[in-house]
Amino acid sequence: MDAFVWDQRFVTGETGVDDEHRELVRLINSLIGLQSKYVAAETVQAALDQLIAYAALHFAHEEALMESGGCDPRFVARHATVHRGFAEQVGKLSALPVGSVSLENLVNYLTAWLAQHILGMDQSMARQIAAIRRGVPAAEAYASESEQAADPATSSMLDAMAALYRIISERNDALGELNRNLEAKVVERTEALRESNRKLLESEHKRASEARRHMQHYLSQIIDGDPVPTLVIDASHRITHWNKACAAISGLPSETMVGTWNQWQAFYPESRPIMADLIVDGSLEERFNTYYHNIFRRSKTVPDAFEAESFFPHLGDGGRWLFFTAAPIRDADGKVVGAIETLQDVSERHQAEAQLLQYQGQLEAQVAERTGALEQANRQLAREHEELSELLRKVEAAQQQVLQSEKMAAIGQLAAGVAHEINNPVGFVNSNLGTLKGYTAHLLELVDAYESGQPEAIARARQKADLEFLREDLPALISESQDGLDRVTRIVQDLKDFSRVDQAERQHADLNAALSSTLNVVRNELKYKADVIVELGELPAVDCVPAQLNQVFMNLLVNAAQAIPEHGKIFVRSGVDREHVWFEVEDTGTGMPPEVRQRIFEPFFTTKPVGKGTGLGLSISYDIVVKRHHGRLDVASEPGRGTRFRIWLPVTPPDQNSSASP
Predict the structure, then answer these.
(1) Do residues 160 and 192 lie in contact, with contact meaning Cβ atoms separated by under 8 Å?
(2) 647 with 629: CB under 8 angstroms?
(3) What per-residue confidence (pLDDT) applies to 459?
(4) Which residues make beta-bridge pairs with 575?
(5) How far is residue 93's CA from residue 193's CA, in Å, rounded to a whole number?
(6) Which domains does the chain show, CATH number per domain?
(7) Which residues form a coiled coil (predicted)?
């Protein structure tokens, strides 16, 4: 039996450190074994050298672990100092002659120092590294260790070993002279240490057992209070937990299940492993397939866990569908020490799926029935659609006729004004031509007289022709006639510019010029109703269809004149605002109430007497400005204060492919 007994109390939780501690204990026990044998001094020295070399390697590993684990530099330095002190003391002891007394002192020193170091500084190191891995700062972990109260039993043991360490260290230099006297004291101290060690182990075993019982009770409360049916088995397949939810779903109380190996009774008519049993056995997937027939799969959320879904006819009334998951339980070394299995009753979902399939069949039958009805309805709808299409074509034809009527009415109104404007110059040009005809006859008679050579005839012809008067009147007649013809030419050109019959596509146009042409064309409609005040600003060329906008200008100008009961004023303005140009027609007419203003852009809405208008002028204008030119047509009006229309047009419209049809 080993003199220096290893116990789980010395475990730090750092696997590499614990393995090396075990090796040091083994080497010390090997050295202790040499005390009772007659062996050569070289054998003892070789065993001692092996122990010292391994201790140095272990100290290097511990210091590297503290560095990589991020321990507080103060603790690392203090720990390294202790290591160096141990090496110095062991070096001094190993330099003494090898004898029974010195060897016993040496092994007692090694035992005391190692036990003290493991229970004290190495356990503290392991706790600090664990805290740092959880995110605790190194300084805080070190401070917490410094402030932490030591366990009374462990403290007494450490104090005893520390005292022994100090005593042995202080007497190392005099060990050669006091070898025989010290032997008895070392034996006494060793016995006391062994007794203290025994008591400490008993205390630690008791405390560990109490902690284990408390943890098991706490875990049992957690599992038993979980609403998810849960069972736990240990490495021997014995049931350790069977919570209330599991008892409720299986009908087997925990009192009859815990401590037994009867977990199969809850699910199967005869003994066989459940999924948790296969987990404990470390079964391969082939064995899972033997019992679960390809209905199992690995869990996507829990490592090394399996799950499956199956029907259990023996559960409840008529059986239950269960979804179950089993996962391994491992100890600190990763060894499987049990398994936990959870159950979920999914019977309602399966019933819902069955009902869904039934509803699906019923729905498919209804769909087939309704499909026939829909096909018949579709044929009826097709006939009605054809009838509606025909009706729509008729309505569109009628609408085109109305629009054409509106255009013809506007043209007729325009033609009357243009005819009046043309008739005036044509009238005096015609009168002048009559006068010129008479003057030409007199001049031709004078030419004939000169050709006859008869003085009397020449004198009569000159007197009749009145050449002095002709010299004054002919230039005036020709100039007046030329002015009249120029005026007719301008009117025709303005009318051509207004209609733009040769330019019906989009182009970059000077809309101030277009507005001026429209003003000239409708002058006869305006001059008897209002004074026209024109205030045009400088505008960039606008991408538009000028003929369409001329129609808008004409509608707004004619409407403005018609809205003035007596002689008033019409203001025509234009301007530019960033990426838009604007045009404004404002009159001093009667204005409009809100209910009329809200409807003026509706097709066929008019306030004029029957036969005086179709109600399409502003509707067409709105369509041209807003839909065809991506602009805006605003109106402001108050009864008795006149009306103002403002047209907003983008200089370059966003849709370059918009329709240009009138």
Answers:
(1) yes
(2) no
(3) 83
(4) 582
(5) 20
(6) 8-220 (1.20.120.50), 226-345 (3.30.450.20), 364-491 (no CATH), 503-650 (3.30.565.10)
(7) 349-408
